[in-house]
Amino acid sequence: MTLRGCSRIFALSSLSLGGCLDPTAGGDDASDTANTAGTTEPAATAGPTTDTAPPTTATTPTTTGDSSTSDGTTGEPPGEQPDLFCPDGPQGGCDAQPDAPLEAGAAVLSLVPNCWEKWIDFDMDNRWKPADDMLLDCGCDQKCPGDPGYTAPDMGEGDGELQPLFMAGFGHNRPALGVRDATQGLVGEGDGLWARAIGLRQGESTLAIVAIDTVGYFNNDVQVVRDMLADEGVEVDYLIVHATHNHEGPDTMGLWGVDLFTSGYDPGYRQQVRETIVAAVKGAFADIREVGSMRVGEVDVSTYHDNGMANVLRDSRDPWVADETMSAAHLVDTEGVPIATLINYGCHPETLANDNLLVTSDFVHALRRTVEEGSTWQTAAGKPGLGGPAIYINGAVGGMMTTLGVSVENPDGETHQASTFEKADSVGQMLGEMALDAVELGEEITAPTLRFAAKRFRAPVVNTNFKLFFDLMVLEREVFNSDMPGKEEIETEMGLVELGPIQMLTVPGELLPELQIGGYDGSHINAEGVPLIKPDNVNPPDLDAAPKGPYIEDRMGLQYRWIIGLGNDELGYIIPEYDFELADVMPWVSEAEGNHYEETNSLGPAMAGLVDQFADLLIAWSKQ
Fold first, then answer.
1. Taking the CA atoms of the chain, what radius of gyration do you get in angstroms?
2. Cα gap 585→604, rounded to integer Å
């Protein structure tokens, strides 16, 4: 076995140690090439349980999933109902009201940390080294004597110690320099990190979806937020917190601290994120209005450029399978005033790669800005926006849907391959224009209905690195059967939402698109000149052993079928079992030959079967 580049000591969900991966083959830090290549009942509404008692903590009874499948592709429904569903669910509080109109509201709040210090990278090496760089020792508020607005010293000011904001997604000890602003890129104004919430209510059924610009968000944090909402009397039958998987913001999982064994998730920021999500949900319901109409549509991303999908996305793991669909839904009230636009598309927001130390929401910023305000190019004509908040929901991003290494040509005729803000803004604006087209070309739904369901279950923890970091509390999760080696489990959940003709399925991690749509026959390449399997792959997947379908999207029931990736959890990559390979030496640490980075960042091979199984349970409920 040949190790790529260098042997990694440990790897965890979505963790990539900078410089240790082959940049052309996979991994979230596949950026060396990119950088050098050129330009209700409040207490009972928190979430699903397996009995009718109000959920309180992660110890709520759950189903232990059997990951076996009947045909190697689709999971057999366990023959039971979801724990929670509305209307008329077993938990009560959401009785059906057939004539009730759909209501919706939205809110947008900043998630930029409110306590951290900046520094100046004097030697321009994108690394914090106290001996070579300058600490701006101004405390939480980043204001020193003489600065506008300075009143008095605050926490950490003048103590000679950096209060870091550790960047997530690539390697350890990457404290941020600042926040990206209007001086960088094409459309930098308004960039940052956001919690974007939509509240939906029909009769007694209430649902909130909050998209946050973070690399991930664990289910135990979601449970705490649900309890906080209940404690404040906010009646929400079900809350979905979706992380956009942004790699250019703070660590919200614990994996990217100063070193391997120190969490990078600051406790103060953890509480800020929780409080901001709660405030966003409350703000969305404070904005609640009757929905006059909803316009829903989708477009094929691959039809917008001669290079097809390869102009905006690269699949770094064989076989090349990319979901080419961009979907959007635009809601307006009875006066025609925009409420929100929901957008669904799958790709890693990691365009700026590992050398960027400015907080940004990556291409997602320009995508949302385009949908809200319109696109702005240097020479090409732009498109007008729709107004109202845009809420981006990432899809099946696993295996690896990425912008890294992509040579992007924008409407100005400029090509960007290096990891720059110009590239991120080009990708984001082009995708935003596609979302606008999806709305314009879509259909108008005048009386959309709302239904949703959820199921909790336990998943086996096979990855020995995960076990270690759970034990060390670098990753803060409750582990069940922790005293039974080989039987350890953690608890997670999946949910299903029906909004008019849209069916959304939450998945607790990074689903490989082939589990969603198939494509083992080459039907989902949609990129000029790109092979299904790289000819130089020394260990190609055996496509004869690949599952035959029907795949998850085939089994979903409504016209528009969305995956909400990293929905209410982030458990790493969810990989087809036929192609799940570990290295013979140091499995879970080193990757097997070929494209097998993702295995080192997964719970284990059972996850694909579990996702199939509980997807089938929820889909079966939806068809009743």
1. 23
2. 17
